[in-house]
Specification:
Layout: E1 8-10, E2 25-28, E3 44-47, E4 56-59, E5 62-66, H1 71-76, H2 87-94, H3 100-103, H4 108-114, H5 120-127, E6 131-135, E7 142-145, H6 146-149, E8 150-152, E9 155-156, E10 163-170, H7 171-174, E11 177-184, E12 191-199, E13 206-211, E14 218-222, H8 228-238, H9 252-271
Parallel strand pairs: 1-3, 2-3
Antiparallel strand pairs: 4-5, 5-10, 6-7, 6-10, 8-9, 11-12, 12-13, 13-14
Helix pairs in contact: 2-5, 8-9
């Protein structure tokens, strides 16, 4: 849609050129949400495409994903054979259930910064123990674990004018086994619960990441594979009955049930020796 409050579009060669920050400014990446509804408080868009950040930069240390990387670009990335969790990237892209038009415009960083409970790029990066690099307007860059970035429904740790620059997926996490469970009330609807379990095959541990069912990502870490009772008790201790996200995509009670059910399925799957994605 047209944004009739916009009076200027800036295309800086560097993010450092945008100082100081003021009310009315907004970063523009894919714009799939920004142009979907009126932005009455915004008068200036700052186009990040002009910065020309490389979308994907693999290295022995892992995968560096620019915040401006398109969902379609990330989906096409396969990764080396030793990164056993690389297929999880496509699982999470598919969870967006967006049209090809949206995939070719929407960005990884945009999905993360929207900070919706069902943001599947949040699910992906939290499960793969990512670190976000943030660029404040008046301070040195800072790094935030993906698990800690989202603080609630449509809420995160970004300060005014702060920019998500990149997401680092460590090679150690990409090398893990994984299991995924997801449910929606409708065939092509928003996720009601999205759970991902990862495991270092040598250690036999379990990292369980819970998203969509809760307002922000919740992670349970076990040094060894828990029993069914241990897992159930850990879930109840970490997420109280009123800690689930209640909305039109599912009641809190429904999401609590799905979380418990899927968590046990993931535990059982990753308990099997040699089980693959």
């Amino acid at each position: 849609m047209n944004l009739n409050t916009i009076t200027e579009v800036k295309r800086p060669a560097s993010a450092d050129h945008i100082t100081p920050w003021r009310d009315g400014y907004a970063w523009l990446a894919g714009g799939t949400w920004l142009f979907s509804e009126p932005q009455l408080a915004t008068d200036t868009l700052i186009d990040l495409d002009a910065l020309r950040w490389p979308a994907l930069e693999p290295s022995p240390a892992g995968l560096e994903v620019a915040a401006t990387c398109r969902i379609a670009e990330l989906y096409r990335y396969a990764g080396p054979p030793q990164w056993r969790a690389a297929p999880l990237i496509r699982e999470c892209c598919n969870a967006l259930l967006a049209s090809f038009k949206v995939w070719n415009a929407a960005t990884v960083g945009g999905n993360i910064c929207m900070s919706l409970p069902a943001g599947s790029m949040i699910s992906l990066t939290a499960a793969l123990e990512a670190t976000y690099t943030l660029w404040p307007r008046d301070a040195p860059p800072r790094k935030v674990p993906a698990e800690d970035f989202v603080t609630g429904d449509h809420a995160n740790v970004l300060r005014p004018g702060e920019l998500l620059r990149s997401i680092h997926l460590p090679a150690a996490a990409l090398a893990k086994r994984f299991a995924v469970r997801r449910a929606s009330l409708t065939h092509c609807g928003r996720s009601a619960a999205f759970l991902i379990g990862t495991q270092d095959a040598a250690a036999g541990d379990l990292l369980l990441t819970i998203t969509a069912a809760t307002p922000r990502p919740i992670q349970l870490r076990f040094k060894r594979m828990p029993s069914a009772e241990e897992l159930r008790r850990a879930l109840d201790e970490r997420i109280p009955a009123d800690g689930y996200f209640d909305d039109v995509h599912g009641s809190a009670a429904y999401k609590r049930h799905l979380t418990s059910y899927f968590a046990e399925q993931i535990r059982t799957e990753l308990t099997q020796p040699g089980a693959g994605p």
